Amino acid sequence: MSRSTVNGISHSELLPHDFREMILKVLKMFLGLVFAGWIFLWIIVPTSTWKYHWSPKLYSNTYSTYFGRQGTNILIYAFPILFIAVVGCIYLHFRQKKHYTGSRSGILSSLIAGWKRPVLVQGPLGVVSGIEFTFGLMFLALLVWSFSMYLHVSFSQLKVPHSEKRWEAKLDSVALRFGLVGNLCLAFLFFPVTRSSFLLQLIGLTSESCIKYHMWLGHIVMVLFSAHGVCYLIYWDHTSSMDEMKKWAKVGVANVAGEIALLAGLIMWITTFPRIRRRMFELFYYTHHLYILFLFFYMLHVGFSFFCMILPGVYLFMLDRYLRFLQSRTKVQLVSARLLPSEGMELNFSRNPGFSYNPMSTIFINIPSVSKLQWHPFTVTSSSNLEPERLSVIIKKEGSWTQKLHAVLSSPIANDHISVSVEGPYSPISMNILRYESLVMVSGGSGITPFISIIRELIYQSNIMNTSTPEILLVCVFRNSLDLTVLDLLLPICSNVSDFSNLKLRIEAYVTKEKEKPTNHEQRVIRTICFKPHPSDVPISPVLGSNSWLYLAVIISASFVAFLVLTGILQRYYIYPKDKNTFKIYSWSKRTLLHLLFMSFCIVVAATIPFLINKRSNSKAGKQINNLDLPTPTVSPSSWLHNSEIEMESLPWNSLSKATNVHYGKRPDLKKILLEINQMNVGVVASGPSGLRHEVAAICSSGLADNLHYESISFSW
Are 560 and 315 in contact (CB under 8 A)? Predict the structure, then answer.
């Protein structure tokens, strides 16, 4: 038994409920106050008050023999966010034991639901909710404020050299300020793509939303940095100082490093535009790894002291990336695969029963026999409560990677074993769907996959936990009748549910390319492939164990404290005795490389130790898990949807068949369907093609029905 448990109960569950709730509220308020203070810091930094009053006092000991200027920057910019990260992980450790439920009422819940209504539907940004629009405007206002204040302070003290014109001196100042504001955006850029980040869990963001915010920030960063570079090129050209492009100064900015970083950023930026990204995804995927060069040379360009301003996001991203690397080195057990007539695939993995996750979680999969380098994200369709020993994903045959995977699985040569590595799964805390009286889920094509996990979780809540669940209306659109076989996967093969009659489920399926029911059912057989376990394969388990948030808090705090201690020792006993802060022996670039080396070393050591501890316990638990013995169906239950004369021996499949209506040769009238719902509190979720999601969002935001609350869970790359 783990030391963190007593009789199978974790320490967080031993605390009284009221006391635990009080701790959670206090921690949440404290986190909000610290974050507000950090944002306020970014607001006052561009002002003259900061430059002429606060900054001289804070940096009065710039040439300290211990930390120097970067010590003050670490204290001001890095420490608050990393402190929030540690406290946030502790908060999530106490909160993760709460069941997947939600409050049906409450003033705060109703207020938040109102702000989630879409305010922008069409346009390059896609569906934008009221919360996203408001915070987006606030962030743009922060950028405009910072840029204008930087220029105001700079122009008020502008000194024009004799060899320059006034507009050239102003252009020099403008170019520098573009870089400073771009640095502000860069400070936020890596938070959304830190998969194990406390932010994703704490705020309740989906992985799709995080990608969207990362893309928005990335575009702004590259616009500002491109303007920064172009302005300096114009300035150097007009002042006959193009030799500046070749300089790598020992003290101050290294121009060559900045040019390399900008070039790497431009290559990444070009491949992110939709036409290139969607048509040549592999080009986008591989070129995006240039972020390593971008960050490395950006750090050399500005020096570590200035880099401390964006250190929190980069530090947490580096830690997350290393944890993902550790998890990806372990091969997981692929138990079986099911091939659908629609050329879809379901992969079923063995899972540690103690590992829980929420519906709509995302997992990244790498299959070396298909591609050794590519990792692809998929929505988890299984329920951790309903299927305690299995994790499933559904993959549609679309791109080159999925085509190769389908060819491997459907090969006539038997595959006894397929090597697979995973990262994740990652999920928000809860979608809070139980607060609705009715839930409408609209999907197109493979967009149904997130809803499978929701339906399976609601089956568990209604039939095993006897929890009151909302009425479910699933409106799914398919191109042909073969795609209907994906409805077979709404119910798991192995579960302890023999009936889901307590769940009020209605399915309206629309087949757009066929005008009538097909008469041939012979091709509607789902083929199941079972794989032999390999001795080195283990069930999917959390990389840091069941108390992963607590371990993550320890890793962040221990690694950062160790980094500060080693940095102080380096500065005091190695650099300062030789250099005396003259930078003749150790230039900015050399010191930056030493700081980067120490930071990487501390992260690796602090993360590896708890990983190895949990890896040993996970391997012991994996040996005790029996291999799943999945039955192989001879006929697809989807044939029941076409009035086939088949004896329905299974009550769950019988209930599913009765709940399903199939419409041929037409598309759903979404406006009519949504406006005819009479319940007062209706959640509406859309997943699939952008046109379908935009249509649903437009109906919910039209004001024709106040009872419709749109929940955005899908984002099209």
Answer: yes
Stretch (H or E) spanning 438: strand 438-444
Backbone angles phi, psi at 569, to 5 degrees: -65, -45
Amino acid making up residue 30: F
Instruction: State phi, psi for 566 to the nearest 5 degrees.
Output: -65, -35
Backbone angles phi, psi at 577, to 5 degrees: -60, -30
Separation CA 460–CA 495 (nearest Å) = 10
Local structure of 561: helix, strand or coil: helix
Per-residue model confidence as pLDDT tens digits over 544-557: 887 888 999 999 99
Amino acid at 436: Y
Scanning 441-585, the segments in alpha helix (DSSP H) are: 449-463, 548-570, 576-579
Other beta carbons less than 10 A from residue 641's beta carbon:
22
Q: Of 514, 453, 509, whose CA–CA distance to 480 is shortest?
A: 514
User: How many angstroms separate the CA atoms of 500 and 651, rounded?
Assistant: 9
Let me know if 275 is exposed, middle or buried by CB neighbors in 10 A (0-12, 13-18, 19+).
exposed
How far is residue 582 from each of residues 61, 125, 252, 671, measured CA to CA in Å?
15, 50, 12, 71
Which amino acid does the sequence have at 153? V
- Between the CA of residue 1 and those of 14, 356, 460, 512, what are the distances in Å? 16, 18, 27, 55
DSSP state of 575: I
Q: Is 650 helix (H, G, I), strand (E, B) or coil?
A: coil
Nearest in space to 687 (alpha carbons), one of 477, 485, 511: 477
Q: Which two tokens stand for residue 310?
A: 């964006």
| Dihedral, 150, 199, 30, 355 alpha carbons, nearest 10 | -170
The H-assigned helical ranges of 239-352 are: 255-271, 274-279, 281-287, 291-307, 311-328
The CA distance from 284 to 635, in Å, is 41
Give how far the C-alpha of residue 326 lies from the chain's centroid of Cα atoms, to the nearest Å.
Answer: 18
Count Cβ atoms below 10 Å from residue 597 Cβ, excluding itself.
12
**Chain-centre distance for alpha carbon 56:** 40
DSSP-derived 3-state class of residue 43: helix
The rounded distance, in Å, linking the Cα atoms of 381 and 633 is 19
Q: Give residue-wise pLDDT tens across range 594-649.
A: 899 999 999 999 999 999 888 877 666 555 554 444 444 433 434 433 333 333 34
pLDDT computed for residue 20 by the predictor: 65
| 289-297 long-range contacts, CB within 8 A, separation 24+ | 290/264, 290/265, 291/264, 293/260, 293/261, 293/264, 294/261, 294/264, 294/265, 294/268, 295/261, 296/261, 296/596, 297/257, 297/258, 297/260, 297/261, 297/264
- Do 395 and 378 touch, CB atoms closer than 8 A? yes
Q: Which two tokens stand for residue 159?
A: 């000194």
% helix, strand, coil for the chain, step of 5: 55, 15, 35
**Partner residues linked to 438 by β-bridges:** 471, 682
Q: How far is CA 568 from CA 252, 315, 564, in A?
A: 21, 18, 6
Nearest CA-CA partner of 291 in 197, 222, 223: 222
Interval 371-383 mean pLDDT: 87
